[in-house]
Design goal:
single chain, mainly alpha, Growth Hormone, Chain: A, 79% helix
């Protein structure tokens, strides 16, 4: 019994050591610095504290920046058909991060009281929106080349680091806040470049780079594209609900004003909740042999978002109650959903390697549009309609109905299970690697390789005919050619060849 326990503990330690390799940690820190930039720039008045119209400037710059980011993602999705070639060179990555840093400095001088200040609003908003969205693409492409568990570790580290950095940032004076905020993206770029190298070359990194030959069947390809659309709708709706609630809680709690300590305390609670959730999610995924383990994490995150939407009524029903807890629940639940989404989206993009950049850009566009719409509705609710019981109830009801509609019809547990079954989990990676090795060693053509994979998955002849739109004789001929090249006489013998093939490295 002791030997069994020791063996399990040893394997667990090996898994932890693998996913927390130095390269993975650096990438997590890079993601954390990148995420913290948006918090620092747009979720506090740190950059604009010394301006007489700080809140107006913040809202204006944010609207311009997020609108430009949304437009940039859509343009990338339209023009980018080169997959991971989007990432370009390291110098390009550094240039994009420096452009975002320069935009941050420009934003610091933004004000509505002078013409120069007005120009800073426009230039800073446009520059930051374009540069940060392009910079985020580098993370999507880099993470889509890694194993699921490493992506989970990176996203968990990233969100923990971002919340902690933002909590500390709230106590900085305007100039120091600008310096810290502007430095986040160049630091993230340096960590990203060296982290991606380390993550790819670290221990147990075999199979982290997707195969050069796309073995995804036409059926799976359609499913994958459908999953991207479902993920996009999910983040559009959840981001919308999250930002409505956050906007209301921020305004009611006076966090946009001078109550830095209260806001810092709220973010500290968020950081603690995110830390606990990140550890829990990571341990579930790392320690469980069940590939469907993330489903419970998704359910909990979705339920917490529903709770935060219900709490929109609390400031009206209990006007003297603190909104720190509702704000913390809202932020933490959305961040946990974001962590899971990074894993799912990067896993799907991994399988859609030829168009990974395009689909990641589409997903990020929806991810960006949700909070934008939520902020506009939340601001309208609070300032134009007046924060009355009727208005708050309508906002709460609309948010809850939107979430339930999303959970019931768009991103269901069944669809989540389907997503997880296509993910680049270790077992599937080994199968893909072995199929690639057989195709290469035995000189199969692209069509023969595609048909071999489908038969190896257990598909029958009519299914292959329908999926590939081929006649029975054509499929049979290809199958006989495959058997001849492999020196086998049946599908079972073909599978034996795939299982026993020698992998390089």
């Amino acid at each position: 019994m002791q030997r069994v326990v020791a063996g399990v503990a040893c394997r667990f330690e090996e898994r932890i050591a693998d996913i927390l390799a130095p390269g993975v940690v650096r990438m997590g820190l890079a993601l954390g610095c990148n995420l913290s930039w948006s918090h620092m720039a747009f979720e506090s008045l740190g950059l604009f504290h010394d301006q007489p119209d700080a809140e107006v400037v913040l809202d204006t710059v944010y609207l311009i920046s997020i609108a430009c980011a949304l437009l940039t993602y859509l343009i990338v999705a339209l023009v980018c058909h080169c997959g991971r070639k989007f990432a370009g060179s390291r110098s390009t990555c550094g240039l994009v991060s420096l452009s975002a840093a320069a935009s941050t400095v420009v934003m610091h001088g933004a004000t509505t009281t002078t013409a120069i200040g007005g120009a800073c609003i426009v230039i800073g908003g446009i520059g930051s929106g374009v540069a940060t969205s392009l910079f985020m693409m580098y993370f999507g492409i880099a993470l889509s080349t890694m194993r699921t568990k490493r992506v989970m570790a990176i996203s968990a580290i990233g969100y923990i680091v971002s919340t902690v950095l933002f909590s500390v940032y709230l106590f900085f004076e305007p100039f120091a806040a600008m310096v810290l905020c502007a430095s986040m993206l160049p630091i993230a770029a340096a960590l990203l470049v060296f982290g991606s190298m380390g993550a790819a070359s670290g221990p147990c990194s075999q199979g982290e780079t997707p195969p050069s030959r796309n073995l995804v069947s036409p059926e799976d390809c359609r499913q994958l594209k459908g999953l991207v659309r479902a993920f996009s709708v999910c983040m559009l709706v959840s981001g919308f609900v999250y930002e409505i609630a956050r906007t209301v809680f921020i305004q009611v709690g006076g966090f946009a004003g001078e109550t830095v300590e209260n806001y810092a305390f709220a973010q500290g609670v968020v950081a603690a909740l995110v830390l606990l959730a990140a550890i829990g999610i990571t341990l579930v995924i790392v320690s469980s042999s069940n590939v469907h383990a993330p489903e419970i994490c998704y359910r909990i995150s979705a339920c917490c978002l529903v709770v935060s939407a219900l709490l929109i009524l609390m400031p009206i029903v209990y006007p003297d109650a603190s909104v720190v807890v509702p704000l913390a629940i809202n932020n933490a639940s959305f961040m946990c959903l974001n962590m899971l989404m990074w894993v799912l989206v990067c896993g799907v993009c991994n399988q859609l390697s030829d168009s990974s950049a395009r689909f990641f850009a589409l997903f990020r566009a929806a991810w960006t549009a949700g909070p934008l719409l939520g902020m506009l509705v939340g601001r309208f609710l609070y300032f134009s309609c007046g924060y009355t019981l009727q208005a708050a109830f309508l906002a709460m009801a609309a948010s809850v109905l939107a979430l339930f509609a999303m959970l019931e019809f768009v991103f269901t547990e069944e669809r989540l299970s389907r997503a997880l079954s296509i993910m680049p989990i270790e077992r599937k990676r080994r199968f893909v690697e072995r199929c690639n090795a057989v195709i290469e060693q035995y000189g199969l053509t692209e069509r023969e390789g595609e048909i071999m994979v489908m038969f190896a998955k257990g598909r029958n002849l009519p299914y292959v005919m329908e999926e590939l739109v081929l006649s029975k004789s054509t499929v049979s001929t290809h199958r006989q050619h495959i058997y001849k090249k492999l020196g086998v006489h049946s599908a079972q013998e073909m599978i034996d060849v795939i299982q026993n093939v020698t992998l390089r490295g």
